[in-house]
Design the sequence.
């Protein structure tokens, strides 16, 4: 069943919804990357919650003028107006008053959302015969989505992606170093405005699919997950958009099989699944990799310390050190060095002496910067340099 | 946006690289910089010095439009800032940057080429070579692939300088380039800056170490919210004027022996 859905076997509309959700995820992943890099991720939460009164007012106005209150385009225009107002309020409170941005976000988010809920209740109380279906905007609902709606979502998501890609350089520089951006003429204020417009677009487009409560997750989770995979902002951008796209696509497919479940939470859970995989298994930065790295590092440190202790005839107190030395065949069970152990220990001591010489000489400044107590100096210096160092410290002492 | 600057008319070259007139900047009610005038001499190195909170960084930022002044103007090479952005390179304070940012050393230097590349220009091999060349000049080529957060403070500063070099500017403005850097970095930076002025470029730096002013700079501007004095080091870097700039804060220990008495 899921396979049918993934391969677009559930009919044209379901396929269109899945493509739309995928593109939406892609756009959210891209826009979210720059929000995340700018450290303004929560602004999107204020924007999304601020859409609700706009949707409700748009519905009332359209019904009052005898139109169809459920027209998606009309509702989205209302959402855009209200969320722009919410964004303006956050920006004003954050920049022009003593409120910090997080306080401004909290205030705007709750007031707008509260107002929106009141309006929704009013709409229900007045008993519009054709129940509005506006609740679908809270948590997202793709069931019964019109073909034109899906097309609208797909096209605007694609446009959003294009804008972010076009602006990626100014957006990157503005997030990293706004002072430099301004002086070199890359207009960080414009970049910021474009970013906010794009986030607003993603939010409004995502209302129908993900819902206004959870759209923030689709903007934040993909870049956070992508950050585990790369230290380069361009790669983070691509990976984030792929994660967002996959989450949207899979989530919409699952939702097509089980239409009773709200679409938004499913998409967000898919994104979370991808986050979990990244968090645990990403090379270099994932939890597993860093635990392994830590163990390897600890082993190397103990080994080195053990060898130095052997070389200098010091007793070894640490169980782990002794165990490592014995396992490597460098020492017998009572801590007495074997022949290979003695040779390795002398080598370690020699390396230590070389390092001391190198670190004391400003001429070797760059090599000395690589000192970590573990790296062999012969990996850092050339043969000639090593000979020079050796000439200064004299022949090895105590070598067997 | 992508302005190719090949030749300048001789009239523009005679104009001061930076001319500030009546600059006043205020955070809140108290002015940080009050009615400051400043003129840079082309092809020379100028230090802006003064006590903490004297408005040194603010003066640079106001001239560059990073903070909006209450009053005053800045002209670069006799023109407005917008007309000559391509001839300026700015090195901000290290603390103003997010060092956790996912970017590598080489990518930071490539940012110096963005104004030339525009929005869509592709980064090609020759751009990478150029960026590597800039890293070599500051002795950081071995670190090109490192994430910037892994560098020491001095190394980060050198990468910033490499980015400024990539901009191929005529005027270099540096905010506290020697703050919190190691001796090797300080030497590397000053060597590069001196080579820039030898090539006819102009350098201005916010500076805080009085002991090195005479060795490093040709001119000084003494700032304590207002400009106390400016001119060649041998004329302006005097005990009397320094005391006037620093007031009671200039202890005998800080007073460099190199100051002209």
Sequence:
């Amino acid at each position: 069943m899921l396979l049918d859905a993934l391969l677009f076997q559930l009919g044209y509309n379901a396929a269109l919804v899945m493509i739309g959700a995928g593109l939406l995820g892609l756009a959210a992943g891209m826009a979210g990357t720059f929000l995340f890099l700018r450290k303004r991720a929560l602004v999107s939460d204020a924007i999304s919650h601020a859409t609700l009164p706009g949707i409700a007012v748009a519905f009332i106005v359209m019904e009052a003028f005898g139109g169809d209150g459920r027209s998606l385009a009309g509702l989205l225009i209302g959402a855009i107006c209200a969320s722009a107002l919410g964004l303006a309020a956050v920006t004003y409170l954050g920049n022009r008053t003593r409120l910090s941005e997080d306080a401004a976000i909290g205030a705007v988010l709750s007031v707008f959302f509260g107002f929106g809920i009141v309006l929704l209740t009013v709409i229900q109380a007045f008993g519009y015969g054709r129940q509005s279906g506006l609740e679908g905007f809270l948590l997202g609902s793709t069931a019964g989505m019109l073909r034109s709606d899906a097309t609208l979502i797909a096209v605007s998501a694609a446009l959003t992606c294009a804008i972010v890609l076009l602006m990626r350089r100014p957006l990157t520089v503005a997030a990293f170093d706004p002072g430099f951006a301004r002086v070199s003429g890359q207009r960080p204020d414009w970049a910021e405005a474009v970013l906010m417009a794009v986030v607003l677009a993603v939010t409004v487009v995502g209302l129908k699919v993900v819902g206004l409560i959870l759209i923030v997750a689709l903007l934040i989770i993909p870049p956070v997950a992508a950050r585990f995979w790369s230290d380069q902002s361009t790669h983070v951008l691509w990976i984030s958009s792929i994660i967002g796209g996959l989450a949207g696509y899979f989530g919409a497919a699952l939702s097509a099989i089980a239409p009773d479940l709200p679409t938004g939470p499913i998409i967000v859970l898919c994104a979370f699944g991808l986050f979990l995989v990244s968090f645990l298994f990403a090379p270099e930065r994932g939890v597993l990799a860093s635990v392994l790295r830590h163990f390897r590092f600890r082993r190397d440190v103990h080994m080195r310390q053990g060898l130095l202790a052997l070389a200098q005839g010091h007793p070894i107190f640490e169980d782990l050190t002794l165990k490592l030395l014995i396992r490597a065949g460098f020492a017998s069970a009572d801590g007495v060095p074997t022949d290979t152990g003695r040779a390795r220990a002398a080598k370690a001591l020699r390396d230590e002496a070389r390092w001391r010489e190198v670190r004391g000489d400003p001429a070797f400044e760059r090599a000395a910067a690589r000192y970590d107590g573990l790296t062999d100096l012969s990996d850092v210096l050339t043969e000639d340099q090593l000979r020079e160092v050796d000439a200064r410290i004299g022949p090895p002492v105590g070598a067997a | 946006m992508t302005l190719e600057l090949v030749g300048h008319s001789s009239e523009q070259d005679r104009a001061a690289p930076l001319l500030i007139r009546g600059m006043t900047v205020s955070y809140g009610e108290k002015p940080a910089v009050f009615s400051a005038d400043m003129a840079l001499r082309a092809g020379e190195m100028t230090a802006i010095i003064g006590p903490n909170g004297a408005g040194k960084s603010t003066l640079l930022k106001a001239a560059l439009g990073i903070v909006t002044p209450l009053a005053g103007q800045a002209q670069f090479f006799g023109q407005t800032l917008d007309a000559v952005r391509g001839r300026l390179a700015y090195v901000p304070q290290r603390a103003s940057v997010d060092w956790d940012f996912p970017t590598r050393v080489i990518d930071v230097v490539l940012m110096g080429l963005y104004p030339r590349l525009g929005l869509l220009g592709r980064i090609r091999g020759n751009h990478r070579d150029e960026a590597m060349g800039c890293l070599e000049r500051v002795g950081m080529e071995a670190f090109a692939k490192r994430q910037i957060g892994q560098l020491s403070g001095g190394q980060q500063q050198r990468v910033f300088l490499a980015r400024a070099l990539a901009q191929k500017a005529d005027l270099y403005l540096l905010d506290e380039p020697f703050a919190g850097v190691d001796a090797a970095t300080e030497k590397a930076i000053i060597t590069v800056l001196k080579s820039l002025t030898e090539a006819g470029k102009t350098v201005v730096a916010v500076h805080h170490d009085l002991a090195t002013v005479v060795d490093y700079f040709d001119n000084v501007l003494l700032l304590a919210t207002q400009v106390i004095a400016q001119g060649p080091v041998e004329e302006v870097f005097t005990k009397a004027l320094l005391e006037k700039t620093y007031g009671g804060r200039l202890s005998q220990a800080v007073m460099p022996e190199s100051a002209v008495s």
In short: Strands of chain B lie at 19-27, 30-39, 45-49, 71-75, 88-91, 171-175, 202-206, 219-224, 226-232. Residues 30 and 225 of chain B are 10 Å apart (CA to CA). The mean pLDDT of chain B is 87. The radius of gyration of chain B is 18 Å.
